[in-house]
Queue: 3 jobs
Job 1
Amino acid sequence: MQKELFSVLWTDTAFQDLESIIDHIALDSIDSALDIYQRIKNKSNTLTSFPHRGRIVPELQFHNILNYRELIVTPWRIIYRIEGNTVYVLSVFDGRRNVEDLLLSRLINE
């Protein structure tokens, strides 16, 4: 029996998040930046086979918003949602940040 594969698509916002993280780390160490980039991309690529592996985002679950999941690559959080056979990576941010503050700032800036 063949396992169903999902497409993993990065939104512009998520890609910009990742680019910003890597650029910031590269100021101190290009090797560390490349390592972190690979770790985040490799972890997100596992969603092609196991899209439900991530937990529901706890801060959103508290408000009964259950369609967003996350993977952790300490200290970063990869936020995504599944629609049909597609996984959309929506955001990558430092897990030490407050999710509500991050979402509010993004909504205000749009």
Job 2
Amino acid sequence: MAESKFTPGPWGVEKSEAYKDTWRITADGQRLASLDGDDGEPEETKANADLMADAPRMLEVLRALHDFALPLRHIGLPEASAQALADARALLEKHGG
């Protein structure tokens, strides 16, 4: 697996006090990203920020599911499950999960 190079979680979401409809993704008080909702729906911008902030946790869950399912590949998984396992492994390798 590749080494993780992203900021460790947990990440959070904060509303910007300076900019209308802007959400910040943060970790340990450090701003990682800002999403500006002026051009779209404010609810969609907030949902996007929430999804991005959950990325480190989703990676942890993906790792746990991958590790659980990996031994099952020897019993002959259905094609869709085998593909999902391969996709999980590729994402984990890419992101160092």
Job 3
Amino acid sequence: MDLSITLIGIVLIIAAIWIILETKRFRHRALAIFLVFVLLFSYFSFTIVFTGKKLDLTSISGIKEAGGIYYSWLASIFVNVKSLTSNAIKMDWTAKNAVGNSTNIS
């Protein structure tokens, strides 16, 4: 598989972005770090989402299908984070002793 060639390409792009932005005397360090994280997240998420799927990325309809699959995956991440957060808020976070009775914290 062309995974190693793709990974080398991603690393070269990241290095190029880093070098270009470092030449501007550290003014845009946050932007460079953000771009690196976006590239790494995109690469690994595309790899995870499309593993085992046969997509034709040479046609417009194949690209639309891949985009739909990827964006539905991203939407499911946000739905899961929302669900996890709401369930964490609903939990009883009071301190309890070994017997299981809650203690008074004043």
